[in-house]
Amino acid sequence: MRGYTGALFGFLAFATLCCLPVPVAFVVAYTAWSEGEDWAWIALVAALAGSVLIVGTAHRYARNQHPRITRRDLVKEENFSYGEETFVMWAPRSPKGSPRARLVRADVLEASLVQYSPEGSTGFTTYGNDHTPDEFTPLIRLRLRVHDAGEAVDSAGFELTDDWRVPSVCLSAVTAGRLAVLVEPDGPRAHGKVTPLWPGSALLAGTRTCRVVDLEGRLSDATRRPDRLLRQMRISRSAGGIAMAGDTIGLRHLDAPTAARYTAVAERDRAFPEARAPVSEPGEESRWLVNSLPGERAAFGHVGRWSRRGGVLVRARFLEMRATRTFQGHGPVLDTVMRIQPADGTPRFDAARRLTVPMNYLAVLHRTREVVLLAHPNGGSYLVDWARTNLLAGTTAAGVIAPDGRELPLTGRPDVVWSLMNLLATHGVSNPAPVLDLRRRRMSALAGAVLEALPEVA
To answer: Of 85, 184, 229, 379, whose CA is between 20 and 30 Å from 104?
Structure first.
């Protein structure tokens, strides 16, 4: 919490130096007033206007650098209802391709970062009309197996390797290993040009959830059911696109032929239910880009004055992310909505806030949308702790080293990691690393409590 105040006063001093005429105007106004000059008020008004500009600019800068979440950020009106598992992502559009292109599934076999080197990475960069500028869109080399049903291609599909720009908000589709692609019927290669559809890939990967309300008002969930999702995407493509209300497609809002086609897909899934695909396809380690991407390193986190004064950790969940045209080097600036459950037991609430979301977190967004917040002692504001969030999300393997030297892995155990984070914060102990080494002297007093929190692991 101290970071916001420090940034505010720091930028106030910097802006005052840059706008030196403002304090000079105060001196001129005072001198003119003391000498009885009639124009003294003009200098005073100019000085006051400049002061307001400096304070406002400093506040905006500090709020951007340290985006606190308060009750002022409460979502006033929701155009749709967020379900318990809902996650809505508004990603930049992909090329539509030709009408003859086939929409099929592609599995990511391997992925590696080719290039990502934005200039001026610490500041904010805004583009007028571009949601995916090359400078802030990582270039990824992908080896794909394309499951193309075309007659000229073997039914087992084909493989290809190429480099593509992947929007940061869709990186999780690469990690999950499932993409939606368009295959052109003609091209320089035997199989024609392949173009990934990144918003559709986020849907196919399960990052974005999908529900369908049929004509009778029945709700069905298509999330992580790739065959059904592909059929729905093909219908949407042939209809020229179908808007989703959040993560929901309401068939009553569609024209009769399109609604009938969607109904047939839903009835087929009801008669022959499709099993949910895994969160990540096998071989995730060959697609793991997290270590190559920028973002705060995962750790159990620091404690400071907020903890000593009674601040606590709060577990929240992202409900929505929407791409903007503003970027920082370590991640895009997104319009987000998150659901916060205050630690004091008061009713949960949804807050909307513009945040810079690190790219290494976005790469595992198909696994979790949870986020760790630092709650101010008075409960009036919250700040995202990305180091703890990334550890909870599993961007780095968490673990404990017991006093006797045993290594106790915590991979895939977010609830245990969460309990240990709170234990450290309660006792005012910092651990800026993903592994708790109980052999260290400063950890010895907590060794018993830590081991009690994971009896079945120990």
So the answer is: 85
Q: Whose structure tokens read 């019927």?
A: 185
What are the distances in angstroms from CA 155 to CA 5, 146, 147? 61, 10, 7
Beta carbons of 171 and 116 less than 8 angstroms apart: no
The dihedrals phi and psi of 42, each to the nearest 5 degrees, come to: -65, -45
CA distances from 308 to 7, 148, 382 (A): 21, 59, 16
User: What pLDDT is recorded for position 352?
Assistant: 94
Output the pLDDT for position 152: 38
* Rounded-to-integer distance, Cα 96 and Cα 236, Å: 12
For CA atoms 54, 7, 61, 349, give the dihedral sign.
negative
Dihedral pair phi/psi, residue 123, rounded to 5°: -95, -175
Q: In what order do the strands lie in the sheet with 248-250?
A: 219-221, 211-213, 248-250
3-state secondary structure the chain: CHHHHHHHHHHHHHHHHHCCHHHHHHHHHHHHHHCCCCCHHHHHHHHHHHHHHHHHHHHHHHHHHCCCEEHHHECCCCCCCCCCCCCEEECCCCCCCCCCCEEEEEEEEEEEEEECCCCCCCCCEECCCCCCCHHHCCEEEEEEEEECCCCCCCCCCEEEEEEEECCHHHHHHHHHCEEEEEECCCCCCCCCCEEECHHHHHHHHCCCCCEEECCCCCEEECCCCHHHHHHHHHHHHHCCCCCCECCEEEHHHCCHHHHHHHHHHHHHHHHCCCCCCCCCCCCHHHHCCHHHCCCCCCCCECCCHHHHCCCEEEEEEEEEEEEEEEEECCEEEEEEEEEECCCCCCCCEEEEEEEECCHHHHCCCCCCCEEEEEECCCCCEEEECHHHHHHHHCCCCCEEECCCCCEEECCCCHHHHHHHHHHHHHCCCCECCCEEECCCHHHHHHHHHHHHCCCCCC
pLDDT confidence of residue 86:
92
Copy the structure tokens of residue 285.
Answer: 């380690």
Residue stretches of the chain with pLDDT short of 70 = 1-22, 25-26, 29-30, 40-41, 43, 47, 50, 52, 54-66, 78-79, 120-122, 149-156, 187-191, 455-458
Whether residue 224 contacts residue 276, with contact meaning beta carbons closer than 8 Å, is answered with yes
